[in-house]
UniProtKB/TrEMBL annotation:
Organism encoding this protein: Mortierella polycephala
Protein name in the entry: Ubiquitin-related modifier 1
Annotated CDD domains: Ubl_Urm1
The protein's annotated pathway: tRNA modification; 5-methoxycarbonylmethyl-2-thiouridine-tRNA biosynthesis
Top-level taxonomic group: Eukaryota
GO CC annotation: cytosol
Ranges annotated as spanning the membrane: none
Pfam families linked: Urm1 (PF09138)
Length: 112
């Protein structure tokens, strides 16, 4: 795969997550297929960990602390689905993105 390629990823937000993204429930995004490692210029295939950082820097409109946790992952209380499966079954942050993946972020915490 050419390092200049992008992946077409469908992002979905619900359970209140859409409020952080200008009320968008779905974003069809072109995400870089490769990211550089922090300590080197080597490139690696895009992972969900990379995607979360990319979303935070390009799509998130407000209150990043409600999306990103202290460890750089999504904060607790957000369910992440990869093509309909819990991301825990797919390797969480290490899952390598594929073209046309559907990634869903659902907040499970609600005020009352």
């Amino acid at each position: 795969m050419d390092p200049n390629n992008t992946l077409r990823i469908e992002l979905q937000f619900s359970g209140g997550m859409e409020l952080l993204f200008d009320n968008q429930k779905m974003i069809k995004a072109n995400v870089p297929a490769f990211f550089s490692t922090e300590s080197t210029t080597e490139k690696h295939a895009a992972t969900i960990g990379d995607l979360i950082g990319w979303i935070a820097s390009t799509q998130l409109r407000e209150r990043p602390e409600l999306f990103i946790g202290p460890d750089g992952s999504v904060r607790s209380g957000i369910l992440v689905l990869v093509n309909g499966a819990d991301w825990e079954l797919e390797g969480e942050l290490e899952y390598e993105l594929e073209d046309r993946d559907e990634i869903v972020f659902i907040s499970t915490l609600h005020g009352g």
